[in-house]
Amino acid sequence: MVNVGLPAKPQPRPAASATGAPAGATSRPPYRPPALRARLRRTAVVGLPVLAALALGAWGLDRGGMWRDEAVSLQVGRRTVPQIWRLLHDVDAVHGLYYLLLHAVLAVHPGEVVLRLPSLCAAAGTAGLVAALGMRLVRPRVGLWAGLLYAVTPMAGHYAQEGRSYAIVAAGAAGATLLFVRAVQGGGPWWPYGAVLALTCWLHEFAVLLLLAHAVSLALARAGRRVWRGWAGAAVAVVAGLLPMVAVSRGQAAQVAWLRAPTAETAERLLQRFLGPSDAVFWVCLGLAVLGLQGLVGRREVTCAGVALPVMVVPPAALMLASQFSPLYVDRYVLYALAGAPLLVACGAERVAGAVGRLCAGGPGSPAGRRSPCPALTGVLAVALSLLHQLPLLQKDREPGHRPDDLGAVSRAAARGLVAGDPVLFLPGPMRNVALTYPRAFRGTRDVALVAGAAESGTLYGREAGPREVRRRLARLDRVWVVADGRQLAGRRAPRDPVERAKATVLGQQFVARREAVRGGVTVRLYVRPLSRPPGPPSPPPRPVRW
């Protein structure tokens, strides 16, 4: 029987626990508003790839030596601004903005690690931007997978540890692509996109090929006239701002005269570097990338595949095609196209996760599955496994000998043989880069061919005397140390410059080799003038001696 006439008897309240919650109540996590949870999720999606790229890039950052291009960055960055400006009128105009950036960075400390820090930070930023792209185009876990994939890709790690502009260009291109997607999706202003891309092109002019990729993305999305007008205005401004650099760099085309036209093997090698140099990782990533292409056409909106595929394919393909007529292609020039590969792979992984979810109860296809962190964590685990599989490649890449040359090792070999007052000859002249980068090893020595130093003459390696003067200077010497390209000493590369021919001729006819040390492709050799040259053919050079 229910008594409706009397007031209900008050029930005793349960005692409060030590934490302030009623006794017997179940513990719950603190309440977070949906907006805060979404912000934390976005921060984690972008932040984790950034941290992963920073950790991998910092591993082995100090290799104890630089290769020749890094050495140029260091010695030019240590010059004054007027000296850098004078140099750019003769060579390396395409790297002018980067050299000015390095000038400010190296003012803190002119060392190898500091030289590479801008590239390391840029690579980490690119990983975060790739994650932001995946999150905006698909969903957060796709962004997380794509960003982590970029961070663990050996090609990205290689240039994260190189004191050149290419990692910074990649960051600028990824940032411009994110601004491009925002402008297309949200109808916002186009000037931020144009400004970032213009600045990126001034770091390296071949970043302008990204405009072609974005045009293809607009065509695939069947964008309206308003979007096309906004993009075209930004593109015209970028190209117009780049014209002065193009005009100057065309006059410096001799710097890339050593390049050769790319072949089908070149394209295959680049694809393997994009998707993973080891076979197991490559084939898995290739399969996922193909799956990620589903829905490429037919939708009136920008899609992950519609952005990633053009970024990955169009700039390298355009540069390779142009290089069939005038060779300009080097894979590092299109490093920024790498950002498209992990996006495509992550897109394919999302399709696999969706298919599995539809087959399994409580999977991603159901409401419970959409809230489950298991698919995202599974993808992170797969990226970690790919990292472990490629760990030997990453470790090898951090060895000084894995670069084209190691000028630090050359300088140490020279320091063990040279003494103050010794004459030194560089063959060819650009080998003087060793002395400019590591001057302590050559302190007190005499540069036989030098007329004016590199900074004073506004050149990369200094100005040398003419052939007749070089012969006259060598004629007064009884011994000379030679720092040379090993291919020239072995006769595999005949010098074209008259000064270099004069050096090689005098050494071959008037001197004999006594001692040498070989470090990679560079030879440090002592030549002495014989009291009398014996008849018959010259004796072969001595076996390399480590000292």
UniProtKB/TrEMBL annotation:
GO biological process: lipopolysaccharide biosynthetic process; response to iron(III) ion
Record InterPro entries: LipidA_mod_glycosyltrf_83 (IPR050297)
Region (Disordered): 1-33
TM ranges: 43-61, 120-138, 167-184, 190-216, 228-248, 280-297, 304-321
Gene Ontology molecular function: pentosyltransferase activity
Subcellular locations according to the entry: Cell membrane
Signal peptide (UniProt feature, chain positions): none
Keywords: Cell membrane, Glycosyltransferase, Membrane, Transferase, Transmembrane, Transmembrane helix
Topology within the bilayer: Multi-pass membrane protein
Comp. bias (Low complexity): 14-33
Tree of life domain: Bacteria
Assigned GO CC terms: plasma membrane
Principal subcellular localisation of the protein: membrane
Transmembrane helix recorded as keyword: yes
Protein name, entry field: Membrane protein
